[in-house]
Amino acid sequence: SLSDRLSGVFDRLRGRGALNEADVRAAMREVRIALLEADVSLPVVREFVDKATERAVGQQVLKSVTPGQQVVKIVNDALVEMLGAEASDLDLDVSPPAVVMMVGLQGSGKTTTTAKIAKRLAGKDRKKVMMASLDVARPAAQEQLAVLGRQADVATLPIVAGQQPVDIARRALQAAKLQGFDVLMLDTAGRLHVDQALMEEMKAVADVATPQEILLVVDALTGQDAVNVAKNFSDQVPLTGVVLTRLDGDARGGAALSMRAVTGKPIKFAGVGEALDKIEAFHPERIAGRILGMGDVVGLVERAAETIQQDEAEALAKKMAKGQFDLNDLRNQLQQMQRMGGLGALASMMPGMKKLAGVAERAQDDKTLGRLDAIITSMTPRERAKPELMNAKRKIRVANGSGTTVQDVNRLLKMHQEMANAMKKIRKMGGLGKLAAMFG
Ligand code: GDP
Ligand code: MG
């Protein structure tokens, strides 16, 4: 496995501290093989590995994990980030009917997914949904959707023999408008391979129906061809998202990464079976785990990182006990909060700690973190350790040096004061270390 291969690469590195470029490159050769085995397309692998390498070089290796494990975690996080850090839902916020158009190769799962999404919208989201099949290429394709409609209890546009896709789209739009449907789902024809006639038809339909969402449906088993499929479709119509089907099979899911890299669009749903309720929001962490096949290593490193945070929290608690919560500590806290909602999230659970949580939230909401950082950086080490030194003259100097205003500097000092006060309260309750242990 990747884990074994990496431990070979890294055994000699154990306990050495930071990851250097040569070692990271050696590890990335193994990661590269793992990604190719998971069917990520070659150009996407190259780009991804370069980015992950850049990120990994110079990072400290956590206590109690090996450098190889650390690299896996870095690669995993980069994967999750690239796959879209959070799930993204359909955007149907237009005057009805909102049109959702499904495109993709034949057999990718368009018709099934159309019915699945329709069912979901009608059930969970209580939308009035109509489906229409524009697939006149395959015999009985329209009937297939009608059958699924009856199963899902979702209306379908009555079939009129001999009508062409663009005309069906027009008729569907009109019917949906007249009958007050919230959403109109258009299922289109596919081809075995991308061809120009299909693309022209798709574009003509999109022109008539002006869809709010155009979803590219892709079989998770699509291998190296995924890049071509994604490129061809996204060159022709403005895709808004991707649906990955057949994730219930043993596909490693590399196509997800290829799709995401080429289209730049979020993967909005995952198909996980043939039945109409077998559709889920897309979970980047799960696919990342599948692509790398190293979920347990990732968990291990995460736990190690948490331990270190607790160590840091305890060190901070000790400083506080001596009344030494200075601006360097404030900066660390703000950075940690931004990384993980750390202290803010923690504090909001504790009665009496709302104030601290509020300060933390304000700093995040206003995206002032960069500015706060610039201000603290512009102070001398002595000023950071003793904020009470900050008189009017120093404030002007720091404001100028950081490209901010004296008002900003004052706000920062006030925030520090508020936090220092809140910290004192935490101390009385048994210290941050205890707190972190309770909730960690
Ligand atoms: P279309 O040609 O793109 O419209 O594809 P269909 O919707 O007709 O699906 C082709 C086949 O794939 C059907 O047998 C579906 O039941 C099956 N299928 C679609 N989505 C999934 C899925 O997520 N998992 C599994 N196992 N099968 C699926
Ligand atoms: Mg179909």
From TrEMBL:
What biological-process terms (Gene Ontology) are attached?
SRP-dependent cotranslational protein targeting to membrane
Instruction: Extract the InterPro entries matched here.
Output: AAA+_ATPase, P-loop_NTPase, Signal_recog_part_SRP54_M_sf, Signal_recog_particl_SRP54_hlx, Signal_recog_particle_SRP54_M, SRP, SRP54, SRP54_GTPase_dom
Q: Which Gene3D superfamilies match?
A: P-loop containing nucleotide triphosphate hydrolases, Signal recognition particle SRP54, nucleotide-binding domain, Signal recognition particle, SRP54 subunit, M-domain
- Protein's membrane topology: Peripheral membrane protein
Q: Name one Pfam family in it.
A: SRP_SPB
Superkingdom of origin: Bacteria
Gene Ontology CC terms: plasma membrane; signal recognition particle
**Residue ranges annotated for the SRP54-type proteins GTP-binding domain, each copy included:** 266-279
- Quote the catalytic activity from the record: GTP + H2O = GDP + phosphate + H(+)
State where the protein is found: Cell inner membrane; Cytoplasm
Q: Which SUPFAM superfamilies match?
A: P-loop containing nucleoside triphosphate hydrolases (SSF52540), Signal peptide-binding domain (SSF47446)
Under the subunit heading, UniProt states: Part of the signal recognition particle protein translocation system, which is composed of SRP and FtsY. SRP is a ribonucleoprotein composed of Ffh and a 4.5S RNA molecule.
Q: What does this protein do?
A: Involved in targeting and insertion of nascent membrane proteins into the cytoplasmic membrane. Binds to the hydrophobic signal sequence of the ribosome-nascent chain (RNC) as it emerges from the ribosomes. The SRP-RNC complex is then targeted to the cytoplasmic membrane where it interacts with the SRP receptor FtsY. Interaction with FtsY leads to the transfer of the RNC complex to the Sec translocase for insertion into the membrane, the hydrolysis of GTP by both Ffh and FtsY, and the dissociation of the SRP-FtsY complex into the individual components.
In its UniProt entry, what is this protein called?
Signal recognition particle protein
The species this protein belongs to is Allosphingosinicella indica
| Taxonomic path | Bacteria, Pseudomonadati, Pseudomonadota, Alphaproteobacteria, Sphingomonadales
